[in-house]
Inverse folding.
């Protein structure tokens, strides 16, 4: 989350008398007697307002819930999933306007719910009464305490299953090799066409990791290390093959295989410019990194998020305002 955006979310939550959960970027709390959460769409000023309500201790009528759309200019649409209603809100042109819109929509929707005798409840079992907003594997859910325990067990069980799914190491290595060969081929092909090495580095980085994940079943830390080693080797090999082909084309009595073997000598004797050779190699390495790092980060982050489930709290971001000064 960008700093300025965080700051804006904190401002909104303060204006609304709600709390911001930094991990999920969700603004949550109790408004007008209802547990509410406001989830932004991809770090924008466009939010989804979610509530969980019951009518006469049963599921609410979706048509009635959708009726709230006409009560507010900000509310654009409504989708209903059981007890839970998600209202998509229009983004404001400015931060100030967005803050005002959120306030208006919150009041309009919750008042409408009151008028229609819709009562705050758990989104899962419909139990009336106190609910909290929980972070379940990265998503905000409005639950009673019982259902939260149940969801925790489900998440834990899923995690066990995932960990039991054995990583196929041999498959992973084969996959990484195949992926890296694809990348190395791109280095040679694009190199021969005279293109900059950037794109082929990206391809090699992504394909190696994806190849591992595909044939191993999952990408573990061990898999990441193995993939990186394969990348380091294959970038070197791909670059050397590319130069061997060029050398064989240039020196008539040289074939590609001999050129590949003789590259160090050609560099030493000055037949090939070592500055250009190593410069090119370094660039492919850099772009392989550029291709690989986002995949590695998102893999590790997805793993962290998947195993998280807890009550949302505002404790963490209370320390933030200092960071902004
Ligand atoms: Zn429940």
């Amino acid at each position: 989350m960008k700093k300025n955006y965080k700051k804006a979310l904190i401002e909104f939550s303060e204006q609304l008398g709600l709390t911001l959960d930094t991990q999920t970027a969700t603004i949550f709390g109790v408004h007008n007697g209802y547990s509410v959460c406001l989830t932004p769409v991809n770090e924008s000023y466009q939010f989804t307002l979610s509530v969980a309500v019951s009518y006469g201790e049963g599921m609410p009528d979706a048509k009635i819930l959708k009726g709230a759309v006409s009560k507010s200019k900000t509310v654009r649409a409504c989708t209903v999933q059981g007890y839970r209603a998600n209202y998509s809100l229009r983004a404001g042109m400015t931060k100030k306007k967005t803050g005002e819109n959120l306030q208006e929509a919150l009041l309009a929707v919750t008042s409408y719910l009151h008028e229609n005798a819709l009562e705050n409840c758990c989104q899962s079992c419909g139990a009336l009464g106190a609910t909290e907003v929980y972070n379940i594997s990265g998503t905000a859910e409005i639950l009673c305490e019982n259902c939260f325990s149940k969801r925790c067990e489900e998440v834990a069980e899923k995690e066990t299953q995932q960990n039991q799914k054995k990583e196929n190491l041999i498959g992973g290595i084969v996959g990484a090799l195949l992926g890296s060969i694809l990348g190395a081929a791109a280095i040679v092909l694009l190199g021969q066409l005279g293109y900059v090495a950037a794109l082929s580095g990206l391809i090699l980085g992504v394909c190696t990791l994806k190849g591992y994940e595909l044939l191993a079943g999952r990408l573990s830390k061990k898999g990441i290390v193995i993939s990186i080693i394969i990348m380091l080797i294959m970038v070197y090999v791909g670059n050397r093959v590319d130069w061997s082909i060029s050398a064989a084309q240039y020196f008539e009595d040289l074939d590609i295989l001999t050129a590949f073997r003789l590259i160090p000598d050609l560099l030493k004797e000055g037949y090939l410019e070592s500055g250009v050779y190593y410069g090119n190699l370094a660039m492919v390495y850099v772009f392989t990194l550029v291709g690989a790092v986002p995949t590695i980060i998102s893999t590790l982050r997805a793993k962290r998020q998947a195993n998280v489930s807890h009550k949302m709290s505002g404790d963490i971001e209370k320390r933030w305002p200092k960071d902004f000064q």
